[in-house]
Amino acid sequence: MVAKVFIDGEAGTTGLQIRARLEKRRDITLLRLPDEARKDPAARAEMLNAADVSILCLPDEAAREAVALIENPDARVIDASTAHRTHADWVYGLPEYDAEQPRRIAEAARVTNPGCYALTSVALLHPLIAGGLISADFPITINAVSGYSGGGKPLIARFENPDAPDRIDAGVQVYALGLEHKHVPEIQAHAGLALRPLFVPSVGRYRQGMIVQIPLHLGALPARPSVRDLHAALARHYQGQRFVSVVPLADSLAMTHLEPEQLNGTNELRLMVCANEAEEHAVLIGLVDNLGKGASGQAVQNMNLMLRLPEAAGLE
Predict the structure, then answer these.
(1) What does the mean pLDDT of the chain come to?
(2) Residue 301: which of 12, 55, 48 has the closest Cα?
């Protein structure tokens, strides 16, 4: 039987990317509303209750409203917003989180799609905290840069529209300097941190691609892990994974620079451990397409699991 999928909010940046990945597939049918009905609650409710899986690409409050419209107990949801990412009744949509997570996602009625910054940070931190190499109460700092597509259509316009009244001309802009960001609770919860991490994001003058960096003074960590300990724990955790890879340590240690756009158009997440071993300094780095594994690609991967379809379908 061909599954029915509805993208609520398909006109947004993530929704358009998901639609592009799904519209040519023969193993699903996309349910779609005409443009004039996209904000009609009754029309949306009909689709949400008719679909086998709905993917919400909406602002947080609109996502909560969409879930409230569902009455069919068999209707399942993937929410790409921030609204449910730390909710106890929703399954976190990172299949590589641990060995049981693909099964949890496959069986779930409600799956929350990770944020791009958070997915990358959690992927780096969770195995190391769970393995005792980084203590849960260690003060973690996360620095990151994303392409401007991560801010959706309003931010895209500020970079691309020469007539935008609030146009951004800078090559890089650091933001969230009040040290509040919607991904921080998600990172803390799913990485297993007892202490709130300090997160400093920035946006660059390029459309998509992301680098997340977590610097560490190894001598200050209670477990005093070596660079090889950190790398081995990550490599062990992600061994055999299709979409998450760990760069060989020798290659990481030989790196002199990294560009954020290398994985654009893929559903890949690439992790590495760079270091100055003599000074006991290390930096955990994650490279990802913020619109791929960081958003639309991850949603499709979760949808495939929920519908018992090949996990990589539409992600080649």
Answers:
(1) 94
(2) 55
